[in-house]
Specification:
The chain is an all-alpha fold. It has one domain. It contains five helices and no strands. Helix 2 crosses helix 4.
Length: about 100
């Protein structure tokens, strides 16, 4: 076995060990529904799709509809605004825009 084969094998084992796989850990229909809702949120905030661990968490905790996914992500701390949650950020942004207009 060459060095490249060893790295490829380690990568394959790592990926197979991740939770949240479509059709294996999460039924395909639910995965597609959860992924679509979660991706719309994570792409805007973190610039990436939801991680396998996030997908498994959403599935395990019954967050299978867009409103429940939004609530789950809404309670997380916002990565770019200290002291605000993801759900609070739009209100803060609106208020800040109004502040900038009137100062």
């Amino acid at each position: 076995m060459s060095g490249g084969d060893t790295v490829r094998n380690k990568a394959r084992i790592y990926v197979e060990g991740l939770p949240g796989k479509r059709g294996k850990d999460i039924p395909e229909e639910l995965y597609d529904r959860i992924f679509s809702a979660a991706s719309g949120i994570t792409q805007q905030i973190w610039g990436r799709p939801p991680t396998p661990h996030q997908m498994q968490y959403l599935f395990d905790n019954g967050h299978h509809t867009p409103d429940k996914v939004k609530d789950a992500y809404g309670s997380l701390p916002h990565p770019h605004a200290d002291g605000l949650t993801v759900g609070e950020y739009p209100q803060y942004l609106d208020a800040y825009e109004q502040y900038k207009k009137h100062r």
